[in-house]
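Shape is hard to put into words, and the shape of a protein is harder than most. The fold becomes a row of whole numbers, each drawn from a learned catalogue of backbone shapes. The outcome of that step, for a single protein, is printed below.
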Amino acid sequence: QRRGLRPRLAGLGSNRLVRQNLVLFAGGLVAGVGGFVYHAIAGRVLGPSLYGDVASLIALYAVFTAPALIMVVVLARYAASLVASGADSSIRYLVVRSSQVTILPTIVIVVAGFALAVPTAQFLHLHSPLPVIWLGFGIAALWQTGIPRGILQGIQNFTGLSANLSLEMIVRCAALSILLAAGLGVTGATISVMAGTAFAYGLGMYTLRAQLGKASVRAPLRSMIGFSLTAAAGTLGIMLLYNLDVILAKHYLSPHDGGIYGSLNKIGTILYFLTLSVSQVLYPRVVEALMRNNHPGRLVAYSAGIVGVLGAGALLVFGVVPGLVVRLLFGPSFIDAETYIFLVGVIGLALSLNNLLVQFFMAAHDRWFIPILWAGVVMLGVSVSLYHGGVGSIVTDVLGTMLALLAALTVRLLFLLPRLQPVVPE
């Protein structure tokens, strides 16, 4: 006998994966909206030419925050393993040791911001090198923020993680409005990034106060080193997939077209950030399932379904009212982007699914996805470098790359699923 709609909905409401996704989706939605409000404010106040500076700087920021995201992946996996094996008393040690290890790199990135400000500004055709210096401080702050975020994800405190992600963007947007009103322009846009991440770090450590208040039990961390290479390859690859094109577009296109493409990239990544919570929930759940000898195939199938449903809704809006999307987010001066809105929506959905699969592969400690992912990154860079006749050419380059990569990663998933084995705790 077939079940009715109400029992099915009740079943979904009691599903742990769905509940966790809803909690993190709420925070991710606020963070995602906040991210686009940030770009919308900057675009409307600064105009296409100066906004092109902001878009390329934020793309550069995203690439150089890869170490923070790698740290999140590594710490989340290790924290999830500790909890699953009943060794959660070692969480405090994990936080303290990670903080000690990251102090020196944090100082180095600040110094690099000063040293490389002028050549970076020249390459990106920025109006001033000063924003690059402030960007270095923002990157340093985010590297530290990766520690509490990774632990929160690993121990599956999705409420705390959700609040952390959303409040960072609220603080960033508030700071941006104040600094632009004060006439600080592009420099103010980068200072606001640092303000948001610094707030998120403090909030993250406060959220972990219960774990930090416990007696510290030393845990062997050597196993983290080997996995760090896998996490680095996966995280940096995904970061480049949605930032490399913006940097190259700013280099090859005119200031106006560079700003238009920057706005398209941000609109396309709406789908990525809208569905990012799904992969953030999936990751520790897969680690937990494998350690407890449960097969994670259903988890990845449900997660892909959630991404597909959310993405389809966004694509419907992009296809029906593309002009409204552009005007609401960036204003009438960006109306040249209208033609490409649906295509960049497809790019965003493909990016989301690629990220979901990469997170699954990393949680399963698979390494064969790495050459596939990086072949996609190389394909993206080469195609944009060779074919950049205009905004439309770069959109076509990116769309072809994303779809080809999704097909290749799906083949790898179908090959891997029947061969998955439980993870033996180290």
